[in-house]
């Protein structure tokens, strides 16, 4: 919850600008008539997106809030001023990012987990290697998030004026401290695992005493190869890192998805004060408010969507979760810095799909994936048609004859 709010406040402005005024020609909405149309249209976008997202969340469908907002804005622009009012080149970039983001997250997740699996999890001394790998992963993740947060960050607290050199050095210092702090925690965790192993071995030896040896049967059939399985104790070492990765991914999620509500709401607020211009700013309290309601949504309907992504697509172990979350975080933060309102849902699903494919095609529940893909496809037209319909209902109330 804290990280969602931090992402919304510190990094949400860039994408909010794109949703609010980057997809349609705001010059067509001049004068008092244009202001009223913007207020009615953007309110329609919010109502349409909220209705569909509530229904999808109730069904546990991980649909895109970005799809919903973009579809509504485009539909409003077309309904009010025609096809020429839409900046189709900008919309085309956004649509392309919807396909690129899950692919990037999937490739990154597959690569990260494949390397971790080969170099750490499948090795005999996997616990020792995990002790080395963990601080490195903490450093990389911390550096990535800190750099995106500090460099050209929130205008409200002056981070947008930070130079590249200061941003890199500050991020490196924070990341080194985080990595150093993670190492003693990991050492203590490994010692606890070793004590558990010793206790289990002692119980096993006690159970063997007084038990006659079992008869050994000799079979002519060749022994079947065993499936490689990582050490459960090594996997448990990644549980703490999962929490850290989830926190960082929440920062990225809040930064990108807050725009889906703040963008249209900011347009309504700006139009209330005057004509919607290219340099209008959204007050910081709006980002606090939107971030707070994101938290409420997560606490109420969020669990069903989390279960779909975290349990139903593929078997997710702690190490897989770390790789999937890191990949999604990286892709979302990169898009946020570029001002592209990509789907964080697509990135999250892509990351989980990538780590699952590292264990083979059969490790994926393709029926669930087909259901998810179907919900992605219908989101855009449903929200577009709904937003246009609500705008049509509002129009007689606001139209100046």
Structure description:
The chain is an all-alpha fold and 401 residues long. It is 76% helix and 0% strand. It contains 15 helices and no strands. The protein has helices at residues 2-11, 13-21, 31-58, 65-81, 88-121, 126-150, 164-208, 232-236, 239-257, 259-273, 284-300, 302-312, 318-338, 344-357, 366-398. The radius of gyration is 25 Å and the shape is elongated. 45% of the residues are buried.
Task: Give the C-alpha Rg.
Answer: 25 Å
**How many E strands?**
0
Straight-line N-to-C gap? 47 Å
Mean pLDDT: 79
Oligomeric status: single chain
**What is the number of helices?**
15
**Overall SS class:** mainly alpha
Question: So what's the overall shape?
Answer: elongated
The helix content, as a percent range, equals over 70%
| Helix-strand string | HHHHHHHHHHHHHHH
- Fraction in beta strands: under 5%
Helix and strand arrangement:
Blueprint: H1 2-11, H2 13-21, H3 31-58, H4 65-81, H5 88-121, H6 126-150, H7 164-208, H8 232-236, H9 239-257, H10 259-273, H11 284-300, H12 302-312, H13 318-338, H14 344-357, H15 366-398
Helix pairs in contact: 1-9, 1-11, 2-10, 3-4, 3-10, 3-15, 4-10, 4-15, 5-6, 5-13, 5-14, 6-7, 6-9, 6-13, 9-13, 13-14
Descriptive key words:
401 residues
Short description:
The protein is 76% helix and 0% strand.
């Amino acid at each position: 919850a804290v990280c969602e709010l931090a992402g919304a406040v510190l990094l949400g402005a860039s994408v909010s600008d794109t949703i609010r005024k980057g997809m349609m020609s705001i010059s067509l909405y001049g004068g008092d008539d244009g202001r009223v149309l913007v207020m009615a249209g953007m309110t329609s976008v919010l109502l349409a997106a909220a209705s569909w997202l509530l229904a999808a969340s109730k069904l546990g469908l991980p649909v895109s809030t970005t799809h919903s907002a973009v579809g509504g804005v485009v539909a409003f622009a077309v309904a009010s001023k025609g096809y020429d009012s839409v900046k189709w080149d900008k919309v085309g970039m956004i649509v392309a990012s919807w396909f690129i983001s899950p692919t990037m997250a999937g490739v990154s997740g597959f690569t990260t987990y494949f390397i971790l699996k080969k170099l750490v999890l499948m090795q005999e001394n996997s616990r020792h290697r995990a002790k080395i790998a963990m601080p490195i992963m903490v450093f990389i993740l911390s550096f990535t998030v800190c750099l995106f947060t500090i460099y050209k960050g929130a205008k409200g607290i002056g981070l947008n004026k930070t130079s590249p050199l200061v941003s890199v050095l500050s991020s490196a210092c924070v990341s080194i401290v985080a990595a150093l702090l993670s190492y003693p925690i990991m050492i203590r965790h490994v010692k606890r695992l070793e004590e558990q192993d010793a206790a289990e071995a002692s119980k096993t030896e006690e159970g063997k005493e007084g038990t006659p040896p079992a008869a050994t049967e000799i079979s002519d059939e060749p022994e079947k190869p065993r499936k490689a399985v990582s050490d459960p104790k090594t996997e448990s070492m990644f549980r703490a890192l999962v929490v850290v990765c989830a926190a960082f991914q929440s920062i990225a999620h809040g930064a990108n998805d807050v725009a889906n509500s703040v963008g249209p709401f900011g347009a309504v607020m700006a139009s209330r004060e005057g004509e919607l211009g290219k340099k209008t700013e959204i007050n910081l309290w709006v980002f606090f408010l939107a971030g707070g309601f994101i938290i409420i949504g997560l606490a109420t309907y969020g669990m069903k969507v989390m279960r779909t992504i975290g349990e139903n697509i593929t078997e997710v172990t702690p190490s897989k979760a770390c790789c999937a979350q890191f990949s999604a975080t990286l892709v979302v933060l990169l898009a946020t810095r570029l001002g592209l309102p990509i789907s964080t849902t697509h990135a999250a699903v892509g990351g989980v799909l990538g780590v699952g494919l590292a264990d083979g095609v059969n490790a994926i529940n393709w029926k669930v994936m087909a259901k998810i893909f179907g919900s992605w496809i219908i989101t855009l037209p449903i929200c577009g048609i709904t937003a246009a319909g609500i705008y049509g209902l509002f129009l007689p109330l606001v139209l100046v004859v």
